[in-house]
Design a protein that fits this description.
Blueprint: E1 7-11, H1 15-26, E2 30-33, H2 40-48, E3 52-53, H3 57-63, E4 66-69, H4 76-89, E5 98-102, H5 108-118, E6 124-132, E7 137-138, E8 147-149, E9 152-156, H6 168-174, E10 177-181, H7 186-215, H8 218-228, H9 230-242, H10 247-263, H11 279-283, H12 298-312, H13 329-342
Parallel strand pairs: 1-2, 1-4, 2-3, 4-5, 5-6, 9-10
Antiparallel strand pairs: 6-9, 7-8
Helix pairs in contact: 3-4, 4-5, 7-9, 7-10, 7-12, 7-13, 8-9, 10-12
């Protein structure tokens, strides 16, 4: 792209990455990615957003001014490791630092592990971050003025994005970036606390609607929600319908939330049989013998709910761009109930 404001790498081009790529391209940013060894769907999404495909991570590091990591939580550290390894052999075309925005749904502890991994790479400036909300929406991908919605991107770390010499201020404004702290950890922590509320409620809805379906009272449950708690009923329906293609991603995210609540909130888990000398148990926030838990197991249970949907129901095969099942709350409940019978 001639006269691009900057080159932004995105790993990877999923639903969120696609929306951000379209927003960037519409605003005169060159967007690049490495999709080698990725699915045909990822290749198709990248081409649909005019994202330039590079052959290696090394090429990505050499050409990008910024890299946004937006992957399932289970892949967050491996992506950071790939970029760190690539930086060793890369011959960057720019004299300015490369900004790496870790925008994955991980705990502050995981973010600090990523930061430690980059500590020996001074040419890379890390920002801890999280995306709150859905993908950007443009009614016309070729017209930047048609953007009707942007998520909030919260970041933290010692190097604010708006200080980047090449288009940092413009990029921060375009992506709706909010820098909330000079430390690594607060941004990912905020993301965890927000996601606990929204996705945690969806897990409650899965269990509630599935149980009601199996008992034959789902219509009555929905009728009472509509009459006595319409906002909760509407939120439950939206969450259930939107959840199937994302359930596999949310398994690890709920584990990261559990770790956040344990390590930073003090909500230790009820783990029987841990001795005082069990260092791993202490790290996980587990209790010693005779102690009561403080709810630390809550989001590990939520993780199990999404794992059930992803691995044991037909809903786990859904793709965002090819939805067939679970298009209503009733269908989600029915398919989950059927999977309970089958297993």
């Amino acid at each position: 792209m001639a006269n691009a404001l900057a080159t932004v790498g995105i790993l990877s081009i999923g639903d969120m990455g696609l929306g951000i790529a379209k927003l960037l391209a519409a605003n005169n940013y060159r967007v690049v990615t490495n999709v080698s060894n990725r699915s045909p769907d990822t290749h198709t999404r990248a081409r649909s957003a005019s994202v330039e495909l590079l052959p290696t991570d090394t090429a990505l590091v050499e050409q990008a001014d910024f890299i946004l990591s937006i992957v399932p939580p289970r892949d967050a550290f491996s992506i950071a490791s790939r970029i760190e390894v690539a930086s060793r052999s890369a011959q960057r075309q720019q004299s300015t630092p490369l900004y790496f925005l870790d925008l994955n749904a991980v705990s502050p502890a995981t973010s600090k592990t990523v930061a430690a991994h980059f500590s020996s790479v001074p040419e890379i400036r890390l920002l801890d971050g999280g995306i709150i909300g859905g993908p950007p929406k443009l009614t016309d991908p070729s017209d930047a003025a048609t953007c009707t919605y942007k998520p909030s991107i919260v970041v933290s770390g010692p190097h604010p994005l708006h200080d980047a010499s090449r288009s940092g201020q413009q990029l921060a404004q375009l992506l709706n970036v909010k820098h909330i702290s000079a430390e690594i950890g607060p941004a990912s922590g905020l993301k965890m606390c927000f996601a606990a509320m929204s996705k945690g409620f969806t897990a409650i809805a899965i269990e509630s609607f599935t149980t009601a379906e199996r008992m034959g009272v789902l219509p009555q449950l929905q009728a009472h929600l509509k009459e006595y708690n319409p906002s909760a009923g509407a939120s439950a329906a939206r969450g259930l319908v939107g959840m199937p293609p994302k359930a596999y991603r949310w398994v690890a995210e709920m584990d990261e939330i559990a770790r956040t609540m344990e390590e930073f909130g003090g909500f230790r888990s009820r783990s029987s049989g841990l001795s005082e000398e069990d260092e791993d148990g202490k790290r996980r926030g587990g209790t010693r013998k005779g102690e009561k838990g403080r709810g630390g197991d809550l989001f590990r249970g939520v993780s199990d709910v999404f794992r059930f949907v992803a691995d044991e129901t037909k809903l786990g095969q859904e793709k965002t761009e090819r939805r067939q099942l679970g298009m209503t709350a009733e269908d989600v409940a029915t398919l989950c109930a059927e999977a309970m019978v089958d297993h």
